[in-house]
Design a protein that fits this description.
The chain has about 230 residues and is an alpha/beta fold. It has six helices and six strands; from the N terminus they run αβαβαβαββαβα. The protein has a single domain, classed as 3-Layer(aba) Sandwich (Rossmann fold). The longest helix is centred in the C-terminal third of the chain and has 16 residues. GO terms for molecular function: hydrolase activity.
Length: about 230
Amino acid sequence: MPTSLRHSTVHSQTPDFLATTPRLSPALIRALSPFDLLIVPGLFGSDDDHWQSIWEDVFRGHGLSIKRVEQDDWSHPTRTDWQTRLEQTLQASRRPVLLIGHSLGAILSVHHGATHPTSAVAGALLVAPADGEESTGPDAARLASFLPLPDKRLPFPSTVIFSQNDPWLAPARAHHLAKKWGASLLDAGYVGHIGNNSGVDHWPLGLNALHSLALTCHAGQMPAHA
């Protein structure tokens, strides 16, 4: 059984139900099978070594329904264009959808929830949301059209995963945003932006969080935030 993420911040640990290989447990497969899984990459997309790409291959290899949102311009995003593409992809889904968003893809997922309270989305894994309001990095200006960040509770269960040394999201801001969005919160440790160069491979911690989120969606309950 995965570690519960519903009530408070949970610190990084390797989940017991996952092996150290990308082979998924029967329990995780059962939990994910009722959903269409949708990968939502962030700025510049997710390369072959990104955990999102690895998950996509692993999920497909286990017969799960998995798709990816493809944007026309990964380097110069606009919220209108990106949200249109997300909505087009969602329209092709025939089952409840679990969004798996990273960085700006996580922010896009939150914007979708804020503007489409009755969409097909059943839940969202929000990994390292790119905080365009507070980040001062060289690419921060690319996120201007996604501001301001939504500040209302999401209409579906969600989990924010943050890193202690993420240049795009300070831990205090992760707590602040998760509280506003009504999301559970998970501390991934010191893994940077959890992106293309993070080296997390198939990322068991994230799979554990996705398993917990799927079980929450099955139960039809919104996770509480401490």
